[in-house]
Amino acid sequence: MDWSALSSDELIRACVGGGETGAWEEFVRRFRGLIAGTVMRTARRYGECPPHLLDDLIQDTYLKVCADHCRTLRDFRPDSPDAIFGLLKKVAFCVTHDYFRGGYTGKRWTGQREMALDSYIESTIPHGQEGLTQMEREVLLHEIDDCLTEEPESLAEQRDRQIFWLYYRHGMTARAIAAIPGIGLTQKGVESVIQRLTIHVRNRLARGKSRKGKSSHSSL
Fold first, then answer.
1. Which pLDDT score, from 0 to 100, does residue 212 have?
2. Residue 174: its pLDDT value, please?
3. Which CATH class is domain 3-101?
4. What is the pTM of this model?
5. Cβ atoms within 10 A of the Cβ of 53, count?
6. Residues in Cβ contact with 59 at an 8 Å cutoff, skipping those fewer than 6 apart
7. Where in the chain is the domain with CATH 1.10.1740.10?
């Protein structure tokens, strides 16, 4: 299913109807820029805002949208093709505004923050080989994805792969991923999947580099 080919209205119906993880992944990809921009503009009204707090507010916006079995989306009745953009802007504004007006700015946010995909990629590169070109980066992304799809995929394996990319590529926290309908895991369960797959990918890439090194050495 090519979720990116759906209109916004069709995508929303797919999200709240079947709860397909692929539909939610496309929802996150399609609207993250809009939500992030609204959060940042709203937060600037209250002064400086650390990046990790902006990330948390973006994730809280997704949680608000998914709350109560996606009630916000279920009750939404668009009057134009672009109406969803106005709705998400409103939700992002309210989440951010309520945070600052609620007097929580002095509290520490202890929720786990996501690790950027670029940071993860850099951690897999041997010392002295930093600074990937775009082509090299894409090759490494394909290698990582291959590590996640080595065996015939069960439904659980497909879900775990999607969790991995939602976390590393789309920047969602474990808490936000667990709130997506269809995931079927608690926050701890999502964290466990991320940790297990991260270790698996690191080990596979390390073994691959080791084999390449031995092959190159033997050919000299």
1. 54
2. 84
3. mainly alpha
4. 0.57
5. 19
6. 111, 172, 173, 175, 176
7. 3-101
